[in-house]
Amino acid sequence: MEPQTTDRPQKSRYEIVTGDDGTETAGFAEYHLSEGEIAFLHTEIDGRFAGRGLGGLLARGALDDAGARGLHVLPYCPFIRSWIGKHPEYADLVPEAKRARFGL
User: Fold this and answer.
1) Are 16 and 25 in contact (CB under 8 A)?
2) 102 Cα distance to chain centroid
3) Structural domain tally of the chain?
């Protein structure tokens, strides 16, 4: 099975799952949701899955979902912030007035 990013609102995080049956959690991106904004706080990929590009897939999936939901993104998490910096097409998700705060 191809890795998939799934929102787990009960845990306040996006998870990337992989494995033959799609049940193995390879990593997650924690967030706080509030009044039209999603603040990404921490992203982690299990060391067993390092070097496979799953962090990028997780970031893209989470940001694509946030954009589709019309949420403004606050990238407090250094990984998410750095990923947006490398993919400027996602910078519009961060409110313009707050981009300088995040170095975007």
Assistant:
1) yes
2) 15
3) 1
CA 24, CA 68: separation in Å to the nearest integer?
A: 26
CATH number at residue 86: 3.40.630.30
Distance separating alpha carbons of residues 20 and 2, to the nearest angstrom: 8
pLDDT per residue, tens digit, the chain (104 aa), is: 789 999 999 999 999 999 777 788 999 999 999 999 999 999 999 999 999 999 999 999 999 999 999 999 999 999 999 999 999 999 999 999 999 999 99
Angstrom distances, CA of residue 35 to CA of 2, 39, 66, 85:
33, 11, 13, 24
Other residues' Cβ atoms within 10 Å of the Cβ of residue 72: 17
Global pTM? 0.94
Nearest-Å Rg of the Cα atoms of the chain is: 13
Which residue range(s) make up the domain with 72?
Answer: 4-102
